[in-house]
Every structure is written in C-alpha cells, then in structure tokens.
Design brief:
26% helix; homodimer; 6-stranded mixed beta barrel; 16 strands; alpha+beta; 6-stranded antiparallel β-sheet
Chain lengths: 277, 277
C-alpha cells in the first residue's frame, strides 16, 4: 500500500499540538484535482501558496522538493484530490513566531470530488449564506488556514439537495461560494467579484481570468438575480453552472458552456462520468 | 516524569493532520495561570470555552472530565501556564463538519509567564500595531483558533524592549493588545473597549468588570493619549500598567494600582518575584 499522507516528507498523518497550524491557523493550504498521476495546475497552486507564505512570513521549501513529495502520493492515481498544507511549524506558546521554526508540510490524498453529470450540465443548487466575510485586506485572496467563516457558513444547512452556499461581505455584496469562486454573465460579458477585502482567489478563477475578457469588480446581490448566467469555479470541481439560487431556477448559459467545454478540452479530468463525448 | 501534554486524556502531543483545528482553526482555546497545583479562574475559562463551543457548534466534554484532565497536569505545579485547546476533531476534507466527529481536547503545561517586578510596578512598553482587527460579530469576543491577525500584529516588531502591541479595528479604534485586554482610567472612571465586532473577551477583563463600575464602550485612539491611566489585563500576566505607548511615557495611576493590589491579594500567584510584601 502506498502512502496517502506525508508529513515533512515522511509517511504519516501526525503533527504536534505545538504546531502553529493547530494553535492559530498559522499557515495556508491548496487543494487540487489529481489526474493520470499528477496534480492539475500544480505550478499555479504552489505559486499561490508562496504568495500566502510571503504574506505570512513563512518560507516554503524549494518547489522541487514540494513537487517530489506530491508526486510520491499521486503517482499512479487516475483521479483523486490532493491537499497540501503548510504551517509555520511547531513553536513555543504565544503569537510571536520563532524565526528559526521549520515549517510543517502536510500532504494528503483524498477521494476524487463528487461531481455528477447533472451537476455539470444542469448546475448546482445554491443558497445564500447568512454568515458574512469580514473585511481584512491583509489576508484577502489568500487560502490561509483561518477558515471559521467558511465552516460556519457551511454549517447553515444540512439539506443535501443544496450543494453550495454563496457568501457576501459585510455590505451584502456576493464574494464567493464556501469553496468556489463566482462568475456572472451580464450582457455578453463575464464579471467576477473583486477580492481585495475578503474571499479566496481561486486557481480555477485565475484560469478563467487568463482566458480573456472578464470584468473584476464589486457586484451587488441584485445583479445575481438579473444576471444572464451564473457559474462557480473550483480547482477540484471545475466549472459548474448554478441551477437554482434559493427560490430562483436558472439555466446554464452559452458563456458558461463555452468555458466548461474549453476547460474539459484542456483538462479532461474535470469531465464528470456520463459527460464524456 | 509526569505528563506535560494530554490529547483526549492520553499522555502525548500528537494530533491528526485531518484534525479540523489544523485545517481550519475550527476550535477554541484557553490559557491560564497555574498556582499551587491548580489553574486560576478555571470555571470562568471553561465557561468561555463553552460559549465558543456553542457559537461553533462543538460539544465540549463534561466539565468534570476536563477538570480531571487539567489537574493531572497541574498537580504539584507551583507556577506554570496551562493551555487547553478544543477542536471539532478529525473529519473528512471539506468545510462541512461531520456531526458525529469527536472533539479533540489538547491540554499542555508550559513555562510560567515572564513578568518582572518592573513590568508590574512601572509597566509595559507598548506600541500601536498597523495590523487591524476585521469586524466579524459572529466570532467577536471568542478565543477561537483563527488567530492570524494576532500573529501578523506580533510579527511587526522584533525589538525586545517593546513588550506588547495594541490593535485597532478597521476604524482605528483601539480594541485590545495582541494577548491582553485594554483599560483606560478617564476622570476617575475605568473604560474598556466594546468587543461586539472583534477582540477577545478576556477572563481577567471579566474579573475587572465584575468588580464594579467600568464603562464598556467604543474608544477613540486619541483617548489613549489623554487618558489618566492605561493598563492591560491578562489571565496569565495579571494587571500591568502601560509605561510607554510608542513615544509617550506614562506612569501607573491609582486605579491601576488599586486593582492590581486587589488581584494580588485575591490571587497571589499574579505577584511577580520581587513584588512580594
């Protein structure tokens, strides 16, 4: 049996209770889809992790070392999810970080994401969460380990027919889903919320932005109701239309379909079972 | 050698990388002073932990069980610091919590706090931090495990002559120190910042509030400069005057002295070496 978890390069799944990840959420993480033995968008994920490290003052290991460790877990995996957590490592009690502390690198392999053909074709059933995202520009965009807002938002519903929740900032502007980014199609143009005060800047979101003309700006909640198209992006689940937003039924639009097709063509691992050509 | 760490009642210092404390900061903690074999203000700490558990939906073990575990570590300790961390426990990947997950209880014994006679008599040298506290009413007051704001604030200085940093909310109003609460003496009356949007409601702060006439309200930064007295409260370090706030020299005032004397009389463990009668 090959290892499914590595902590600092060694098979195992244990960290010290002195780890600053455990005590303060002092670190960041990445979650990625694995296909044909390797993580998709690996470089982009490591680059975002490095940006988080820079913001928090955590020095990451050399990219080659991270990659070697990741590939030890993903080699031979046809479809899975890989999670990579980096923390400032163990330290003495107190917020002050020991500058000589060695980061903890925890890499783990998980089940492949559950995306059905209906999720991909018709879309996800989504609700608006009451839990809001506080404005903290210093941490905005980063996938750091302080995720209680997402935990509390996801705890708002237990009905399995609802698959995601949209979170707003304190001014009621939609920012992202609990574990995905949000896009609107408005009069032939894609729009995605600005993430300068809160939210996570996703890697699948970056893929969409890199494809071209997307307006990044503050969005009002009322725009979701009038938008021609709504979809979510996730580096694990891909591009998925929104089929229902609370009481409102919606259908997948042409811009969403086109992006989804482009993604599936470029990265076939995102194609759910039943959607293959 | 007696145990200095217990995880779920068993000597040891390891938790799973699947623990939601490690992944999301999904939990809360308490830090307390230990004297003559037992933690000070134990009931108040457990009560605050339970409030955090209620807010996060984490069921704590019975108080008697927590107390028995804590006393296993503190028995025979003349002076130490006890830390108690409760998380939602290990779970599958994703923000959604498994309602059957069993919380992780990590209890650890640490060195006694370093408070000098000068710290207690003259006061602490304190700076204003640039890092601000985001407004999140759902988490305000709780000592949860999402503490990157405090980590980043504490990382702003390395000069050991500065002992604490004051943090403001996004509107520039002082809220608390990185690891203590703040009090002002203004025209014979004590004032402490309102913690309805951010900040941690400390147990030593609650002790001060319970002694009587303290006004809890929004405070402007300019009031710190004109206040007659300024002090910090901590359940580990006790009541300590502020001797310098950035460039401004200050001296300990009569209200601060009186409260400190009352605390030392009630809980002699807070008396630093060199300050005994």
């Amino acid at each position: 049996v090959s290892a499914r978890q590595l902590v600092n390069g060694t098979p195992g799944d244990l960290v010290s209770i002195d780890d600053r990840g455990f005590n303060y959420g002092d670190g960041a993480f990445e979650t990625m889809l694995v296909a044909q033995g390797a993580p998709i968008w690996w470089e982009a994920h490591v680059e975002r992790l490095r940006r988080a490290g820079d913001a928090l003052g955590i020095a990451l290991p050399a990219p080659g070392k991270l990659r070697d460790d990741a590939l030890r877990l993903t080699r031979g995996e046809q479809r899975a999810t890989l999670k990579l957590v980096v923390t400032r490592g163990p330290s003495r009690r107190g917020y002050r970080a020991d500058p000589t502390a060695a980061p903890t690198i925890a890499i783990s392999l998980h089940a492949a994401p559950m995306v059905s053909a209906d999720d991909a074709r018709l879309g996800l059933r989504v609700r608006r969460c009451a839990m809001t995202l506080a404005a903290q520009p210093r941490l905005a965009g980063l996938k750091h380990l302080n995720r209680l807002e997402q935990v509390l938002a996801r705890a708002e519903w237990t009905d399995d027919s609802v698959q995601e929740g949209l979170m707003c900032d304190v001014d009621g502007r939609p920012i992202c889903a609990t574990a995905a980014n949000l896009f609107l199609g408005v009069r032939g143009r894609l729009v995605t919320p600005l993430l300068d005060r809160c939210g996570v800047a996703g890697i699948a979101r970056a893929w969409v932005l890199a494809r071209g003309d997307v307006e990044t700006r503050a969005v009002a909640w009322s725009e979701l109701e009038t938008a021609d198209e709504l979809f979510l992006s996730s580096s694990v689940r891909g591009i998925l239309p929104i089929a229902r937003l609370d009481g409102q039924q919606r259908s997948a639009g042409p811009m969403t379909r086109e992006l989804q097709a482009a993604l599936w063509s470029e990265q076939p691992a995102f194609i759910p079972a039943g959607c293959e050509q």
